[in-house]
Amino acid sequence: MVDNRLDTTFHALSDPTRRGMLASLALGDKSVGELGEPFAMSFAGASKHVKVLEGAGLIERRKSGRKQICRLKAAPLKEADDWLRQW
Amino acid sequence: MVDNRLDTTFHALSDPTRRGMLASLALGDKSVGELGEPFAMSFAGASKHVKVLEGAGLIERRKSGRKQICRLKAAPLKEADDWLRQW
DNA sequence: TCTTTGTTCAACCAATCGGTTGACAATCGC
DNA sequence: GCGATTGTCAACCGATTGGTTGAACAAAGA
Asked: Residue A16: which of B7, B77, B87 has the nearest Cβ?
């Protein structure tokens, strides 16, 4: 029942695997496989994390052949930052 | 098994009740009861949220008679903000 | 002292989380 | 077409979450 935007953003950021994926994406677009590769984890597991990030609006995907290329979207990070900056 | 500081901070922030408590604390120190009062929730429930915030280092408490006065501690927010600002 | 107030604790519950496996679909290279 | 690559989905698992109730406790006030 997580409906608030800040909820999903902060929740997505609360996992080190997902933060690592975002850090990786900051260096350039990556496929789901490339994103999951550094984290000894099954493909499906990585796919789930990517879906959480996508659900939070932190990334967007584009199909390129059989790969799913992910790109960082900073807008929700900005929102989260604005919230933090209240203090 | 959440051992990373950013993990606990972002997790604490991912709940609207806890964000509300922090916002409330930003206006001045409050007891646990005062913090929980706006959120239709049992006393024990509010106490748990406060404990999460305390565990994340976002607040500190001081005993004043039978009340527990909570005060905002911004240091972990700063850390979280620094992380966000990488992008 | 007895009662009230403020708070925590322990036990429990349903829901969610992070992860797995196995089956499947789509696309590429041969 | 065949096989390998890339990824999703559904089902399951154990651990954790957010919440409840009820008992307990500590301090203040009568």
From this structure: B7
Q: Within 10 A of A61 (CB to CB), how many other CB atoms are there? A: 17
**Whole-prediction pTM value?**
0.89
What are the helix and strand counts (H, E) for chain B? Answer: 5, 3
Q: State how far the Cα of A81 lies from the Cα of B77, in Å rounded to an integer.
A: 10
Of all nucleotides in the shown strands, which has a C1' nearest the CA of B43?
A: C7
Provide the β-strand partners of residue A64. Answer: A67
For B13-47, the pLDDT digits (tens) are 999 999 999 999 999 999 999 999 999 899 999 99
Q: Read off the DSSP letter of residue A15.
A: S
Q: Which of B3, B4, B10, B77 to mutate to test the interface with A (most CBs of A within 10 A)?
A: B10
pLDDT tens track for B37-85? 999 899 999 999 999 999 999 999 998 888 999 999 989 999 999 999 9
Residue B87's SS3 state is: coil
Instruction: Please give, rounded to a whole number of angstroms, the shortest distance from the CA of A83 to a CA of chain B.
Output: 10
